[in-house]
Amino acid sequence: MPASTSTARALLLGLIGQSIQGSRSPQLHEEEARQQGLRCLYQLHDLPLDTSTGQLSTLLAAMQAVGYAGCNITHPFKQTVLDCLDSLSDDAAAIGAVNTVQFREGKRIGHNTDWWGFAQSFQQQWPQARLEHVVQLGAGGAGAAVAHAILTLGCQQLTLHDADPARASALAARLNQRFGEQRVVVADDVAKALAAADGLIQATPIGMQGHPGLPLPVEWLHPALWVADVIYFPRETALLKAANALGCATMNGGGMVVYQAAGAFRLFSGLTPDAQRMAQHFARLTD
């Protein structure tokens, strides 16, 4: 992941999303900056769900004008923001979603550190996980990134399901073009797919603060599944609680958020972050 050439001694950063007041990104970036000898202010830009592409572009222009080094993008704007940018990194272009925008030389450059964050977290927690068949819920911005990650890690068959079947089909087609035909299929019957699966990835907003509930019936889970949820706030979603009660191995989105933040910090600052230090700080924040 290329670093920025800028190593300014002060950083102005932000997060654009909807219902983001519980985000730990400000503390993660500001503390790592302090440890690196930088002054950093990380601001939240909580936008309505119906924010248009034009309004998003106007906000990005304003951020550039006042000297932001860049910003993070979260639900539901990781794909909307694509039309507001001047260029994309190879990873962001392949995934079709952006979670980090770097402002450099008057340009807006889109990156995706989400996939790397998920991959690092997954490998660290489950280096020997079975990846023959994985079912994933959600084909939006986060879903595109984690699907890219799990296929990069060696998943042989990924079954996708999304509330919008056309979105799931479009993501499957894009992934198959990159990873090989029929590596990704769209689920007709999620319960049947799960019964024969090694793992479940939950990449929808269901379960996060402001979107409570379960993304599927508990009866569809079974103890042989590993279950990974990209949500980190709350630390134990209703899905993970149900999976833990069944004896499933589970992982929340905490590791993903730390490693994606580390990747974004490097892009913003040009400095190499201490991911372990950031993980320890995140653990203190969420205790």
From TrEMBL:
Reaction(s) catalysed by this chain's protein: shikimate + NADP(+) = 3-dehydroshikimate + NADPH + H(+)
Protein name from the UniProt record: Shikimate dehydrogenase (NADP(+))
Q: Which residues bind NADP(+)?
A: 90, 138-142, 230, 253
Domain of life, per lineage = Bacteria
EC category name: oxidoreductase
E.C. number? 1.1.1.25
Question: What residues does shikimate bind to?
Answer: 23-25, 74, 99, 114, 232, 260
- A GO molecular-function annotation: shikimate 3-dehydrogenase (NADP+) activity
Q: Into which family does the record put it?
A: Belongs to the shikimate dehydrogenase family.
